[in-house]
């Protein structure tokens, strides 16, 4: 992992993230890193190109995405997509703005590698009957 639970907790303003146990935050970080590695097409493990690890923009993208996953996991209502919930005589509503995944495309656009990736093309063949 290129970032730590401490990095995510220090960045986040959300108590749910700050109070999340480190082992669970590590899983959120793993999810974030996996998604960003897939998007960029590499794992930033080239010591020649990245001698100090991933650039700061990439680390920030890891943190933002890990924070998002931690918030979703910590709030069962968000994970299920509820806008309101009623339990006995108690009810609450969440605002109309659903939590959106942070956009990291602009931060990572300079680090996307397409060379060496499998070309994705579709072959379509038809045969007359």
TrEMBL record:
Leader peptide range in chain numbering: none
An example of a Pfam family matching this protein is: DUF3199
| Matches recorded under Gene3D superfamilies | YqbG-like
The name of this protein is: DUF3199 family protein
Q: Which organism is it from?
A: Aneurinibacillus migulanus
